[in-house]
Amino acid sequence: MNLFLSAFFSGTARGAIYAIVALGLVLVWRGAGIINFAQMGQAMFTTYIASTLIISGKSYWLAFVIALIAGAMLGALIDLLVMRPLSRVHRAEALNSPAMKAAIPVIASLGILGLLQALAGMFWAGQERGFPAPVAIEGLIVAGRKMPFTAFDIFTIAIVALVLVLTSLFFRKTGTGLAMRATALNQEVAKLSGIRTTQVRVLSWIISGAASSLAGLLIAPSSILSPTSLDLILIIGFTAAVVGGLDSLPGAVLGGLIVGYVISFVNFYRSPEDIFLAILILLLIVLLVRPNGVMGSKQVRRV
Amino acid sequence: MVLWVASRSDVFKKNMIRALFFALGILLIGSFLDPYNQSQLSVALIIFIAVLSITLLTGASGQISLGQGALMAVGGYASALLILNVNLNLWLAIPLALLVSALAGLLLGVTAARLSGPYLAGTTLVIALAIPSLANRFESVFAGEIGFSVDFGNPPHWLDNLIGEVGIEKWQLIVTIIFATIALFFALNILNTRTGRSWRALRDHDLAASLQGVNVGRSRIFIFMVTSAFAGMAGALYGLRGIVSPSVYAVSLSLSLLTAAILGGIRNISGAMIGSVIIVFLPDWIEAVTSRFSVPTRISDYLPALITGLLLVATVVLSPGGLSGSIHHKKHK
Amino acid sequence: MTLEISHLTTQFGSVTAVDDISFTAKASEITTVIGANGAGKSTLLRTISGLEKPTSGSIKWSGNELIGLKPEAIVRLGVAHVPEGHAVISELTVAENIAMGGLFRRRKNRADLESASKEVYELFPRLEERHKQLAGTLSGGERQMLAIARALVARPQLLLLDEPSLGLAPLVVEQIIATVNDLCRKTGLSVLLVEQNAITALGVADQGVLLSLGKVVADRPAKELRADATLRAAYLGY
User: Fold this and answer.
1) Is A258 among the domain residues?
2) DSSP class of residue B245?
3) Mean pLDDT estimate for chain C
4) Mean pLDDT throughout B97-121?
């Protein structure tokens, strides 16, 4: 029973983190039509920034906030410097088959990932680092009994829950949130309603950037930080987004939790080596059986 | 089959001549190089074969795969196992490894045929990461992280007698030239014939193509099989440089291949060659420059990666057709 | 506040959809653009609202040159376009669709926006009843009303209406056209109405512009067009 509870709580905590990663991916997918494979590179980069601040004596929370801001700015930079020029080039180039149009931004994001990893290597000498947590990451003892979860698990779940509530309120109750939803659903009608769709797009990148920073900060304490340490998380986040439905924000959260539980139970009941295989199998099953994800909408192909 | 070959004899002849010129050209260049650069040239040729798989898959038929490195791994492990366990020499092992890769391509194609765009990209990336970890998972068969040691073997005696002592690097070069020429020949035949046209139709207007009777699903799968064979050949040769192990075929390999394809120009064969040469020799060129100044190691270590990433982003934004694409553009202005 | 179109040409590759069109839509009048399918009517509206780029010509609205402006900027100049077909966002509620139309004015004038919303609901009481429903669950006529409501909430001075009658029952069409007519006469809203249903359009319009294959064939007061039997037979089929 104890094993089950440990797996369950661990899965919830990890699932919460994957939900944030998936959320970031879905935001940029809906807002800009791109799968941002550089997302975890952004997370790695900003986590290094936070780590450097903490090592030089600044408080965890200061580093936390700065990492989020850095993430937001990095996201905006990527849109302004790379993605926006890219969409302009598209219309002019002869490479205009629909497949290439879809492939090019993906390749660009991979290039950015490589860039960020190389820069991280240069700035921080590719140093592997630990990362502190604001609360203990080892066992938690309450009333004399060892709990199947840690204080950090609770912290993670609490922060993610808070972020999700805020995000949900933002999208449902604010004008900007409505503008973002409208632009993602039907860009033309949004434009005709006076919505500045380019601003909306940058905003998607900004929020997604901050989200990926958050994910990086939450993952770092339980693993090493190195230029390539977060690559695996990208795959997991992608799978989570696909499982939940690339078009759906609530789907991203659900997908994250599902993947979190799958990984956790495989980790606890079988072995860490099998995690990869499990992810691959999960991804393939979803793509073959229900490609639009659990909460995705059916897309009609326009002839 | 014979009739089919005969009816295309003109095109075949032209392509065969092109391929032979290529082989002779590289051989000539190679004879002027020192052993290190001969070895680098071999690697460039191997990468060229792998990049051809991307040129055919993405450039010609519009499907994106970020996992060609994984298919190289399949070829590499297959040939290593055949050489070590079944005692075949490389001339038999590599074609067989090719077939195994084609099989893997079949599996990949069956999964991928229904996917497109981001789903295809992401899934192939997952596969690229999964394959090396599979080698760790089934350590008994695949020797885990350590992997297998294989090599090109020694040049045959008659060659030594013919042209004098052939060094290891030169032998490596000769072997890779042979396979690269074969690959080039097949690539030319695919691209410049009706097959190529139907692949391009698939890329540009798959809906229209299917309405015209092209079995889109089956064609896609076939394309995956063929391009996987290319990747597998490259992977087998790549492994023969010394080691077949998960780290040899890591994700970075897949990304390097993609970078080479884009840099050189994803739509044609010369692009594949240009890109492969750049990707392989760039670190050397960079080192030649940085060794003049005293650059701290943490910068010089990551400089190739930085420049590669920058080149990739710059190419995609400024000239998605790559170097060969922009030359082509200028010629036809 | 007139809309002056001069020598406007819009091409798609080798197809010239709008061919050297010139006419003026007078302020506070209903100008209808009629013609058969493929005459270039929709492209004309899309060029005015900034969704399509013209090859040459000029569009002047209240003295402002519209060509080269983004759709968002043109909306802010008081021009509202209700495109044909999918003019509402099905996944949002009625209330959200209407709110969307007023978003860009929110910061400047919240109070006015609220009263504009109220007015729009008074104009289309059916929408008020269903304001919490998803737009995708509305009937065709209700969706058209919603599309118009979305445009009106921004208090435009020029309304570009693209084939409001498409796919709707005659009774519903009458209702909608009557509402738009009312609006024009009471508030001075200028309307550029594109319609295939020439009878209905000419019934309420002040001026009629007849298009055929992208060119202007006639630009006359609606009364005259209604009376001209030869023209009607040749281009409008009745």
Assistant:
1) no
2) -
3) 89
4) 84
CA pseudo-torsion sign A208, A213, A214, A215: positive
Range of the domain at A178: 27-229
Measured between CB atoms, does B219 come within 8 Å of chain A?
A: no
CB burial of residue A3 (10 Å; 0-12, 13-18, 19+): exposed
Do C106 and A175 count as a contact with CB atoms less than 8 A apart?
yes
Give the count of domains, chain B: 1
Structural contact between residues A257 and A16, judged by C-beta atoms closer than 8 angstroms: yes
Give the DSSP per-residue string, B185-227.
HHHHHHHTSHHHHHHHHHHH-HHHHHHTT--HHHHHHHHHHHH
Domains in chain C, please, with CATH? 3-78+156-236 (3.40.50.300), 89-152 (no CATH)
Q: What is the ipTM of this complex?
A: 0.90
Whole-angstrom CA distances from B117 to A274, B68, B287 are 28, 16, 37
Distance from CA of A6 to the nearest CA of B (A): 24
- Please answer yes or no on whether C72 and A178 come within 8 Å at the CB atom: no
Which amino acid, residue C123? L
Report pLDDT digits (tens) over B181-225.
999 988 888 877 767 777 777 777 666 666 666 677 777 788 889
Is there a contact between C104 and A186 if contact means CB atoms under 8 Å apart?
no
Contacts of B117 in chain A (CB under 8 A): 99, 102-103
- Gap between the Cα atoms of A162 and A12, Å rounded: 15
Beta bridge partners of A146: A141
In a domain, A269, yes or no: no
Residues C11, A102: Cα–Cα separation, whole Å: 26
**Does residue B332 or residue B265 have the better pLDDT?**
B265
A197/C51 Cβ within 8 A: no
Residue B265 burial class via C-beta count within 10 angstroms: exposed 0-12, middle 13-18, buried 19 and up? buried
pLDDT at B333: 44
Instruction: Walk across the sheet containing C30-34 and list its strands.
Output: C79-82, C158-162, C190-195, C30-34, C207-212, C215-221
Q: Which subunits sit against C, judged by 3+ Cβ pairs under 8 A?
A: A
With 0-12 CB in 10 A as exposed, 13-18 as middle and 19+ as buried, what is A234?
A: buried
Interface test with C, best of A30, A187, A192, A298 (most C CBs within 10 A): A192
Instruction: Tokens 């003049």: give the residue.
Output: B292
Chain B's closest residue to A283, CA to CA, is: B123
C211 within 8 A of C34, measured Cβ to Cβ: yes
Specify whether the CB–CB gap between A194 and C76 falls below 8 A.
yes
Chain A partners of C50 at a C-beta cutoff of 8 Å? 191
What is the per-residue pLDDT across B21-48, written as a single tens digit (0 to 9) for each?
888 888 888 888 888 888 899 999 999 9
Mean per-residue pLDDT of chain B: 82
Give the structural domain span for B314: 2-331
Is residue C167 pLDDT above 70, yes or no?
Answer: yes
Dihedral sign (CA B268, B65, A120, A21): positive
How many structural domains are present in chain A?
Answer: 1
Interface contact flag, A195 C103, Cβ < 8 Å? yes
How many Å apart are CA B220 and CA A51, to the nearest integer?
Answer: 47
Nearest to B50 by CA among B196, B177, B233, B178: B233
Q: Structure tokens of A47?
A: 């986590």
CB B41 within 8 A of CB B56: no
CATH code for the domain in which residue B26 is found: 1.10.3470
